């Protein structure tokens, strides 16, 4: 088959055009692929920078928190040290204060009072047998002529000066604090229901054994004569807002 010259040229030109289009498609595809790769790389770089920024921010926050914890710890340590110093100084002051107290001098008038109160409890006071009062039950009372006491209020003040309320109720409530007490008032005068018993303490001259001392109180063991034999009594002395008082005592075997 014969193809004329013009037709051959047309065929060649058509083939050339097709080849050109194919090449352009390949170049375009390659360009798009390159652009996609570039975009991917840029996205990766941005992501890495973001991660680095986030990591840096987190590190900064952690560093700030650590610094804050250190400052708090230092402040707490200083506070504890200061409190310990205050406690130490307070203890030293209390120890110095207790060492400066003359406990023997405090004890002496309390021992004298305890001897006297024990005799009052035994109704060993001066009274006038000619001035008698008999109550509804039949108990006889005699007018007290002791110059120190002319009323129940006088006795109350005397007991309160040397004994705590606890001591009064435990050992000496029957003097004036019970419903049927040994001392009463009648017609404005003080009367006593005399029973009579042995009473009082004959304290020995040797000093008491003082222990458990503080500015608030102390313990004292004192010897006394009991029918020619040595005996001991242990007293608890407390510092109240009204002075030093006997809070308790027990006889030692």
Fraction of residues in β-strands: 15-25%
Number of strands: 9
Any idea what the CATH architecture of the domain at 102-252 is?
Roll
CATH fold topology of the domain at 102-252: Nuclear Transport Factor 2, Chain: A
Question: Count the helices. How many?
Answer: 4
Terminal residue distance:
155 Å
Question: For this entry, what is the oligomeric state of its chains?
Answer: single chain
N to C succession of SSEs: HHEEHHEEEEEEE
| Low-confidence runs | 1-38, 47-51
Secondary-structure content class: alpha+beta
Average of the residue pLDDT scores:
78
Largest sheet properties = 5 strands, antiparallel
Percentage of helical residues? Answer: 40-55%
How would you sum up this structure, described in words?
- The protein is α+β, with helices and mostly antiparallel strands and 253 residues long.
- It has a domain at 102-252: Nuclear Transport Factor 2, Chain: A, CATH 3.10.450.420.
- It contains four helices and nine strands; from the N terminus they run H-H-E-E-H-H-E-E-E-E-E-E-E.
């Amino acid at each position: 088959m014969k193809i004329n010259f013009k037709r051959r040229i047309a065929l060649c030109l058509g083939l050339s055009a097709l080849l050109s289009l194919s090449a352009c498609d390949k170049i375009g595809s390659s360009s798009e692929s390159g652009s996609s790769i570039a975009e991917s790389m840029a996205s990766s770089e941005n992501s890495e920078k973001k991660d680095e920024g986030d990591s840096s921010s987190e590190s900064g926050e952690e560093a700030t928190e650590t610094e804050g914890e250190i400052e708090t710890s230092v402040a707490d340590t200083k506070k504890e040290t200061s409190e310990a110093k205050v406690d130490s100084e307070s203890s030293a002051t209390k120890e110095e204060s207790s060492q400066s107290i003359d406990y023997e001098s405090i004890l002496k008038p309390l021992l004298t009072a305890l001897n006297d109160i024990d005799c009052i409890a035994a109704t060993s006071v001066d009274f006038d047998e000619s001035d008698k009062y008999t109550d509804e039950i039949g108990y006889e009372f005699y007018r007290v002529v002791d110059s120190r006491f002319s009323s129940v209020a006088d006795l109350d003040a005397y007991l309160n000066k040397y004994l705590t309320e606890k001591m009064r109720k435990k050992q000496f409530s029957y003097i004036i604090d019970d419903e049927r007490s040994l001392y009463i008032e009648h017609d404005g005068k003080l009367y006593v229901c005399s029973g009579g018993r042995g009473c009082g303490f004959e304290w020995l001259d040797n000093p008491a054994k003082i222990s458990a001392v503080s500015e608030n109180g102390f313990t004292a063991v004192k010897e006394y004569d009991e029918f020619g034999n040595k005996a001991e009594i242990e007293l608890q002395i407390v510092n109240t807002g009204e002075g030093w008082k006997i809070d308790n005592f027990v006889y030692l075997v």
